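Thread: "does anyone have the structure for this chain?"

Original post by V.I.:
We have the sequence but no experimental structure in hand. Need at least a predicted one for the grant figures.
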Amino acid sequence: MYITGMIKRTLTGHIRKLSGKFPVISLTGPRQSGKTTLLRKSFPDYTYVSLENPDTLAFALSDPRGFFARYPGRCIIDEIQRAPALFSYLQQIVDDGNRPGMFMICGSQNFLLAERISQSLAGRVAVLNLLPFSHEELAPCDGPPLPLDGLLFSGGYPRIFDAHIDPADYYPNYMVTYIERDARLIKNITDLAAFQRFVKMCAGRAGGILNLNSLGNDCGISHNTARAWLSVLEASYIVYLLPPYHENFKKRLVKSPKLYFYDTGLACSLLGIRGEKELATNSMRGQLFENLVITEFLKYRVHRGRLPDLFYWRDKTGNEVDCVIESGQGITPVEIKAGRTVNEDFFKGLNYFNKLRKGKDGYVVYGGTDSQPRTGPGVLSWKECTKAIGPS
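Reply from O.Q.:
Generated one for you, tokens below.
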């Protein structure tokens, strides 16, 4: 049985360390990704206050000074972006107190929170992100190990594991309860039916190069509307755009990002996939597997407080590497293949890319269970895919 309060979050040590150095810690991430649980467990002696509570929100909006007189420090303020005026008062309190660990603030709308932080708390705050569970976090738990299709279908949202909710029941409600509400708060989206179609169309393009004109045309909306709605999904931690790698090796490159979902369980739900068996034969399984590996790389870095530094590479003639991982030691190209049996075709993109840059390293991450050390590009099981990133 999975008990999410017992699952150690990778970010825990880093957030505790930074709380001894910065007066404010900001934690953002998707709704229901475990932000509140992490903060309350990491800082049990802090007062917790949520602006989701209507009475508390009304108090914060009508009397900011009184609010901070009641909560002067060592306090966790949840969904703080709902009361923007608090940030100016928080700046003054932090400047007057000037000691580490005064406030923990968190929220689920990255754009709104980041905007207020840059205006009022720049230089005073450590900004961190918490995404749904990674395989790294789930693997050591007492529950039965998830097979690949199980992980793809369930995704990583804590309540699925904690309350044993069928993902087929969880994600449609998540869509209605959170995504649509956030969409209305961030942008005044009035045609929710069209927005729902748009989100589903995005799921059908997971793992593909973003083409806003095509996406807008298929949804019956303009290019500008598609761009605005995509920004809503980014700000709500629903979709992630993987940028193209900047080094061209004298090649003409594709310059659009690739589209992924932060959670494959939500993508499966939007695609109408109702179970693991159905997923196994679905035409999108390869793209969803690629999506999973990319987000595992993303979580590995983000949950250690590091920049993602993830890219993809593709030239105009179709030569491509699924992921290019950048680090202080250089770059590591990675090909992602859902097949369970390694064959030489898996190395085609890597070999082409390595020839251009006069390299010979990299990895193939595949859907099998056994990693294979090799001369030249190595082979990693999906379970060990983050070894491609190197040491923590």
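V.I.: this helps a lot. The chain has a mean pLDDT of 91.
O.Q.: and Residues 253 and 316 are 5 Å apart (CA to CA).
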